[in-house]
Amino acid sequence: MWFFGKKGASGFSARSTAEEVTHGVDGTGLTAIVTGASSGIGVETARVLALRGVHVVMAVRNTGSGAKVKEDIVNRVPGAKLDVMELDLSSMDSVRKFASDYKSSGRPLNLLINNAGIMACPFMLSKDNVELQFATNHLGHFLLTKLLLDTMKNTSRESKREGRIVNLSSEAHRYSYPEGVRFDKINDKSSYSSIRAYGQSKLCNILHANELTKQLKEDGVNITANSLHPGAIMTNLGRYFNSYLAGAVGAVAKYVLKTVPQGAATTCYVALSPQVTGVTGEYFLDSNIAKPISLAKDSELAKKVWDFSTKLTESQSGESSTSN
Does pLDDT of 14 surpass 70? Predict the structure, then answer.
């Protein structure tokens, strides 16, 4: 990834922007949800999708900020179709309300872009008493995807167009805990590492997409699921880094960090490019297929994460059987 100008098989590189990788693509008639669309690369993802004719639903925690971003995009992209809806991924109740409201609206859903995330925060629990990075980065998106999957299946069938689920992971998945996912220590404050917990949540993003791929293939549904690393970008994702570290990073930023338009490129490429048609269960980096760590390709671990996540989300809704 550090060879910024080196193009891969797709014809794009780390220097490619979101507009460049979607040049000539017509997204008219497609509807997308982009989580975390009011800050960082989420804003640029929403803008470029709208620029290509996609109807974008901005799923954001702060609807006030979302409304301002929407206004700004509409000013820059006349005719852009955007809606703002409230979604707090750290709260399962919020995820359920969002999904229920979305389904009630009767909107189709072609593209689900699980973009939102928090990074390297101190140990905290979510409203549902789950470690915050795991809850926000993985579990919230897992539940959101599960609740909207039927809508995506119906849209794909009715429109005869491929649906795409895009999980934003990170190269930080390489720096999870040694065992990959600590199922029995998710909430263990004493051994918590903010960086490793972030890596764990990002590893789960890949495993989630891979298990989804398996299940969607078994169902014979025309929906793909892929994960990606957007690149190292100086956005407010790193708000928990101390000021000294932020300053040091800033000093070398122009040499190693991507701009926001470059950071949103891989997401927009995987979501819209005809080059990615039929490609599923892959991990992308700099708008090209890349190799994650071997744990990320472990199908047994992927199933275990799926079952663990299902149990956690069901136990918060009263769905699970009391006879267990």
Answer: yes
